[in-house]
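pipeline: protein-struct stage 2 | run 1193 | Nitrate reductase molybdenum cofactor assembly chaperone
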Amino acid sequence: MPGFEVLYQAAALCLMFPDDDFRARLPLLREAAPPLREFADHAALTPPRELAAHYVEVFEAEPEHSLYLSAWREAAPTPSEELYRSHGLETTGEEPPDFLPAVLECAARTGDTQLLADHRDGLDLLRSRLTDFGTPYATVLDAVCVTLPPAAPGR
């Protein structure tokens, strides 16, 4: 599924803790990834402390909103450091290799979307939970999910 590399890279940035580097990249992110403009506009208008507190509330205080593929308990394989190395990438060690932003960045850099497609059910579940929670982060998952093939029937 080539052509979504910029979107995946931008989505990975959106799903990381919103630090000063993230804020500095918002104008570029907004222009480079139009499906993420709504989220980028929200992030730009939200005071930094408030945005950081919201990130913690959404992703760190709510286990149902985990950004780790292994938390979704699917039959699909989760990435390992070997997978990243096989694509010529290295993990930083700051997060486990199944951290969704890392998986998105890997897909962006390699064009290989199989791991995202394998976890389509979990991504849909996370998207639904974020939507129900009422967070703008749901729009990031919306943008990613629309690029993936539908989940296989019976999964």
